[in-house]
Write a structure and sequence with these properties.
Rossmann fold; alpha/beta; elongated; 2 domains; 259 residues
Length: 259
């Protein structure tokens, strides 16, 4: 690997107006810079609010970077991921910048480990005495019209099944079952002792703050099951940063050795 190259890592997120999302991304960039010794790390957004991808790449170049690794920071290989990859590749080509684009976060057991950590934290904080084999888990995903996104989500669901009594899934929007159906099925079909809800979201954005909570509360009001707890979202986690770095190394070595 060429040690003289100044390397940048640019994380491309979907985009959010919530200040907590920016703070989480700043923290992730800081951890990645420390752990992988990038010369520069930053984030940008695909949509919603700036900085957008073009500005993110420009800032990397302005920092003096000779080489930019772009990480599409998505849990699913859906339409938003594809848009971010296409835009990044096009802008890099137009600006004649040395870039590589990593795989997203999907299809990796590190994500499973983070979900298990969130469940463990929840049980500890609420002093839940049920063993894992007595707990029913419901993962709440965002949802997508893209079948590839659904398949990636179900992959994580399946990797969790060996550890808990029952693991199922539902979606906030764009796919079925929705949250109402997901909770209904858990309560009426599985005779649970306890249900632990896992919001499968990267950030503390609008969906976590409002939408998921509203739909969960509405469903629980219908089906009157009281022993329900919800974990935190995935958020800032060193394990996720390790996955970012692993994905980056997968594509960097092949390209950098040629420069």
């Amino acid at each position: 690997m060429n040690k003289l190259l100044k390397k940048a890592l640019l994380i491309v997120d979907r985009g959010s107006r919530e200040p907590e999302v920016r703070l989480e991304l700043q923290n992730i960039c800081s951890i990645a810079k420390r752990k992988a010794r990038y010369d520069y790390t930053n984030y940008c957004f695909l949509e919603v609010v700036p900085p957008f991808i073009e500005e993110g790449i420009r800032k990397c170049v302005d920092s003096g970077a000779d080489f930019i690794t772009i990480m599409p920071y998505f849990l699913y290989p859906g339409m938003k991921l594809k848009d971010s990859v296409k835009q990044s590749a096009k802008i890099g080509q137009i600006k004649n910048v040395n870039i590589v684009i990593t795989k997203p976060l999907s299809y990796h057991t590190i994500v499973t480990d983070v979900v298990i950590d969130r469940i463990y934290q929840l049980k500890r904080e609420h002093k839940i005495q049920f063993s894992d084999s007595e707990c029913d888990i419901l993962l709440i995903g965002h949802g997508s019209s893209d079948k590839c996104a659904r398949n990636a989500f179900i992959y994580t669901v399946n990797t969790l099944k060996p550890f808990y009594r029952n693991v199922n899934f539902c979606f906030l929007e764009l796919d079925k079952p929705d949250i109402n159906e997901g909770i209904k099925n858990m309560v009426l079909q599985n005779d649970p002792k306890i249900i632990l809800l896992v919001p499968y979201f990267l950030h503390n954005g609008t969906h976590i703050k409002y939408d998921v909570i509203m739909d969960v509360d509405e469903a629980l009001g219908k089906y009157r099951f009281k022993n329900v707890f919800m974990t935190k979202h995935l958020g800032v986690d060193e394990k996720l940063v390790d996955l970012i770095i692993e994905r980056a190394k997968e594509v960097e070595k092949r390209r950098i050795d040629l420069l």
